[in-house]
Amino acid sequence: MIALVGAWAITLTMLQATINGPTDAFRGCLREASDKAGKEKVAGDAFEAYARNACSAQMGSLKGAVVAFRVKNGMAKKAAADDANMTVDDYLATSVDKYQFFASQNAQQSAAAPAPKSAPTVQATPASATQQPKP
Fold this sequence. Notes:
single chain; 4 helices; 135 residues
């Protein structure tokens, strides 16, 4: 009995590990995409498409891992695919919300920051004009 419980625990741990790798890779890709998009000044509204494009390989890997995990645990393939899509959409929505928040904060800070001061320009006046020496 103890051996059966131990074997089941090991099996569940291994199955969970098959999801952790793709999840970590997708979340890491979203962080990198967010950093890169910030440097490229991508608008908040355009970030979702940017992230989907940048992380498409990791997204596909995570979907496949979630479907395989759910099917192995007895879920129907259609329901598992829907669950995988929701999982990916949740991670993506969280990243998009965070990016849009920071993008709006950065825009407000740059709008509130004073323009850099340049050296004052000196206007010529008759008194400051170069005068010829008197003979």
